[in-house]
Amino acid sequence: MAGTGKAHLRGNEALLTVEDLTVEFPAGRKAVVNAVSGISLDVLEGETLGVVGESGCGKSTTGRAIMQLPPPTSGSVIFDGMEMTGLSKEELRRSRTRMQMIFQDPISSLNPRRKVHDIVAEGLSIWHNDSGHSAKQKVHEVLEAVGLDPETVADRRPHQFSGGQCQRICIARALVLDPKVIICDEPVSALDVSVQAQILNLLEDMKERYGLTLVFIAHDLAVVKNVSDRVIVMYLGKICEVAAPDNLYSHPAHPYTDVLLASIPEPDPQQPVPERQIAGELPSPINPPSGCRFRTRCEKAQEICSTEEPTLREISTNHYVACHFPNETPTKVINTF
Amino acid sequence: MQPDQRLLEVTDLKTHFDTPRGILKAVDGVSFSLNKGETLGIVGESGSGKSVLVRSIMNILTSNAIVPQSSKVRFEGKDVSQLNKAEAKHFWGTQMAMVFQDPMTSLNPVKKIGVQITESVRFHLHASKQEALQRAMDLMVQVGIPEPRKRLSEYPHQLSGGMRQRVTIAIALACNPKLLIADEPTTALDVTVQKQILDLLASLQEELDMAMILITHDLGVVAGRTQRIGVMYAGKMVETADTSTLFANMHHPYTEALFKSIPRVDNESHTRLDAISGRPPDMARELVGCRFAPRCRYAQNRCISEEPELLEASAPNHQQACFYPVGSAHNQQAAAANQQAGITAAGLDLTAAAVS
Ligand SMILES: Nc1ncnc2c1ncn2[C@@H]1O[C@H](COP(=O)(O)OP(=O)(O)OP(=O)(O)O)[C@@H](O)[C@H]1O
Ligand SMILES: Nc1ncnc2c1ncn2[C@@H]1O[C@H](COP(=O)(O)OP(=O)(O)O)[C@@H](O)[C@H]1O
Ligand code: SF4
Ligand code: SF4
Ligand SMILES: [Mg+2]
Ligand SMILES: [Mg+2]
């Protein structure tokens, strides 16, 4: 199958291991949306795993399936040695304090009627029977950690804050439960570049301060590269390439990764805008292309690409690609587009 | 520069809003001009007044807007504010047209795509139904929509975000405007689609020889695609220059800071970003001194009390509004003094390892 395979998994050392994850949504008349189709990934403790791909490729669905929101159609999610699929509601609620998620649209993910203090403390009051006093302390600590002044913000409501400040509140809300893993689903896509930089720095700081493990989802490879230790490139519910970010940039092996790189707007007028752009639109996940799912937009597609799905294989140390005709790597130096 | 090449002339534009919190000065004295066929990028953070500026140019402001008599917007020499309602309606579309950030706000969700395109063609060009339909088909092809005939009978929600934006571009182009204003046309889209749309706008601009104003918060978006750039901060233009001049020689500390906050794909992973600390000021408050001072790493006493004007910089066609422009000896002295003090004259903590 295209983009299937587990060569890139690192075995027992991982904190989070996802195998053969498939998520299908009903789409009427027996049709299904193949949102995620048999992907595997793992995250080491203290690592940031970046997940990149265009809108609709299944990034959010993957993140949510890891959280069991909703549970995947099939596949396994093992977090800290425990299989998450099939857990009872109560067991899931418990484990969720240790795995938190933050979202793309910070403003709409906060309840507009509640005060910041209550929004951040909400999880605490559900999960821990902490006395009001220590809960308040904890809330103050995390608000301070994300760069907000607890005294001035605690009694205000979300609409009084900008998008960047709302994202800080969301991060505080996730941190308050002392999670091990935070899944960040496009946390900066809705923000200005200047605010984006603040939030990316903040996430790096919080990771260090609280010893977090992150899954960082975005559509912009420049953003993902900045914070990640390992990057997964996704396309239409499949994995195309897995590599260390610097490697992925210097030696992209998959034709889709080439396109993602060529799409990043370069803040340098002396560099010509790359000719290369992705052709057409993402095909429907209800009826994905046979063989390699990228073949309908791939410049290198051959006969075999429609009949045989490429499997992830190692092409150099810690660099995996699912393509029948990957770029020559690692000898070639890129920047030729 | 030939005077008859002038397409748009904006002089001391002030757009203030009457709000419950007082007068909000969204645009506060902006002047610039644009020649026929020229492309201008306007860059600034959220809330800096970019959209209000172009809405003022289009003359599509809300009723609480206050624009003083002294503010002028001239299009081919004509004062846009003097157009009556009927004239204005023809003006949009045939002279200037606009593409917005969220295509759903400019498309009617309950009307078929075809109707929305032909409507404007029929209204402005007095075309017959048949001619309008043909024009719609041509436009759909021009903006790169596959299966145009099928798409014409679909509704906006049946299209992807990128396709919807192509439709709004088709509508904007329907009556051959001389100026296309694109207000963050790709901010809601992902990078691959953003690239497609920006490439499309660039090729259309060239092919149709339109002037274009491209608005964005990302200097990367305008770098390769505009001839001139204006940087806006808190309702003011703080630096304008030819694109290549600006990138070669950023004078305003805000321009420099915006540039440095971009995550670069050629940086090593985990490179700390140079974020701009803090936020733009509340423009409903009386602002004294340089508006960027609270966030500026070079701020001196003068910056707190006196407001810098937009003045000619070293290169021709380059203007900047800063007392200590980047690259000058003054700037180096200011930087050194602040570094040594660990704090700027405006109180920005330069030693803070805390969240920036
Ligand atoms: N109709 C209005 N009434 C009152 N205030 C307004 C109105 N429209 C805009 N403003 C205010 O004017 C300022 C400038 O807004 P504007 O929308 O032009 O910013 P922008 O630079 O386009 O930002 P963004 O990047 O978020 O689109 C903001 O403070 C905004 O809240
Ligand atoms: N609840 C749902 N019902 C039906 N289809 C869905 C649902 N959630 C997501 N999808 C579809 O699954 C695919 C992957 O979506 P998503 O994970 O949101 O992508 P991304 O986050 O990469 O943009 C898309 O085709 C999307 O429309
Ligand atoms: S070359 Fe074939 S296998 Fe590789 S990405 Fe293109 S279509 Fe897929
Ligand atoms: S140096 Fe002074 S005038 Fe220049 S941007 Fe900074 S605060 Fe403003
Ligand atoms: Mg998503
Ligand atoms: Mg705007």
Number of domains of chain A: 1
Give helix % range of chain A: 25-40%
Query: Globular, elongated, flat, extended or rod-shaped: what is the shape of chain A?
Result: globular
> CATH H level of chain A: which superfamily?
P-loop containing nucleotide triphosphate hydrolases
Arithmetic mean pLDDT of chain B? 92
Strand order of the largest sheet of chain B: 7-8-9-3-10-11-13-12
Number of helices of chain A: 11
* C-alpha termini separation of chain B: 44 Å
The CATH top-level class label of the largest domain in chain B: Alpha Beta
Number of strands of chain B: 13
Order of helices and strands of chain B: EEEHEEEHEHHHHHEHEHEEHHHEEH
> H/E element string of chain A?
EEEHEEHEHHHHEHEHEEHHHEE
Largest protein-protein interface: A-B, 57 and 54 residues
Helix content of chain B: 25-40%
Largest sheet of chain A: 8 strands, mixed
Name of the CATH homologous superfamily of the largest domain in chain B? P-loop containing nucleotide triphosphate hydrolases
Structural class of chain B: alpha/beta
Structural category of chain A is alpha/beta
Small molecules (ligands, ions, cofactors) in the structure: adenosine-5'-triphosphate, adenosine-5'-diphosphate, iron/sulfur cluster, magnesium ion
Rg over alpha carbons of chain B: 22 Å
Features:
heterodimer; A: 337 residues; alpha/beta; Rossmann fold; 8-stranded mixed sheet; 4-stranded antiparallel sheet; disordered C terminus; B: 356 residues; 2 domains; 5-stranded antiparallel sheet; 13 helices; binds adenosine-5'-triphosphate; binds adenosine-5'-diphosphate; binds iron/sulfur cluster; binds magnesium ion
